[in-house]
Specification:
This is Clc-like protein. Keywords: Membrane, Transmembrane, Transmembrane helix. 64% of the residues lie in helices and 11% in strands. With 257 residues, it is of the alpha+beta class. It has one domain: Up-down Bundle (Butyryl-CoA Dehydrogenase, subunit A, domain 3), CATH 1.20.140.150. The strands form 2 sheets. The chain has a 5-stranded antiparallel beta sheet. Strands 5-6 form a two-stranded antiparallel ribbon. The chain is elongated, with a radius of gyration of 29 Å.
């Protein structure tokens, strides 16, 4: 009778472990989905030039100042179109040597050139490089996290490594957002000097897009940490299973002489 009770308990334990493993797999898959979404948002934010946007009325154009790309869009009444999104963008790279030389010439001729004040914002400053560096590291770490996360349901070691990589992803992404936010609110970065007026730059959609990716990566980190902890706990419990198999030896029939 005791043997049947032990078999029932073992079957119940096995079913419980299977349910736990299935739940852990679901949590890891959910974390991977969140990380993919975060990676897409972060990559989209980095690619966009709309980190700082300013409408300079005397130039009759809207300027988009990004981390590595700057674009200019003429005002709606200057182009024969009814949709603002159809207006053409004229873009330059911050690291373009020829564009940098033109910017330097404009700044040197600031007294006679009305575009000189705005040209300063097309330079590749140190805080641009630091922000871009942290965000690119976050994207690379997110890609590596996805590779480890695929193997995480099969191995607790990969699950722990996955959680660590996601943690570094969230950390570097947060650092990039923080550097940009504080640098963009400095007076020399926030205001653009024109010929007849001063214009205030506003934070563009690219920043909020990247921040959304950072928040989602933090949620993915929480789920990755939970799944890694659960897998480690399961490995600890599996070490005690052989001792439970010795339980039938303690039945009275085995003790008879």
């Amino acid at each position: 009778m005791d043997w049947h009770v032990i078999e029932i308990l073992e079957d119940a334990t096995t079913m419980s472990e299977r349910k736990t493993t299935s739940a852990q797999t679901i949590v890891i898959i959910s974390s991977l989905i969140l990380l993919i979404v975060a990676l897409g948002l972060q990559a989209g934010g980095v690619m966009s030039p709309s980190w700082q946007v300013v409408d300079i009325r005397e130039f009759r154009a809207t300027h988009h100042h990004g981390l590595w790309l700057d674009c200019t869009r003429p005002q709606l009444h200057l182009v024969k179109t009814q949709n603002k999104d159809d207006l053409p963008l004229h873009c330059t790279y911050k690291f373009d040597i020829s564009a940098t030389q033109i910017i330097d010439e404009n700044i040197e001729d600031i007294d006679q050139n009305s575009a000189a004040g705005e040209s300063e914002h097309h330079q590749f400053f140190g805080w641009h490089k630091f922000t871009l560096g942290f965000m690119l590291c976050a994207i690379i770490l997110a890609a590596l996290s996805l590779l480890c996360g695929i193997c995480a349901p099969c191995s607790s070691g990969f699950a722990v490594l996955y959680a660590i990589l996601v943690a570094f992803t969230a950390f570097t992404s947060t650092c990039g957002d923080a550097i940009f936010f504080f640098a963009a609110h400095r007076v020399d970065s926030r205001f653009v000097q024109g010929l007849v007026g001063t214009y205030e730059q506003v934070i563009g959609m690219a920043f909020y897009l990247h921040v959304a990716g950072t928040v989602i990566s933090c949620l993915a980190l929480i789920m990755a940490a939970i799944s890694a902890y659960s897998l480690l706990q399961n490995n600890e419990s599996e070490r005690h299973l052989p001792m439970r198999e010795m339980a039938p030896l303690h039945e009275p029939r085995f003790a008879r002489v």
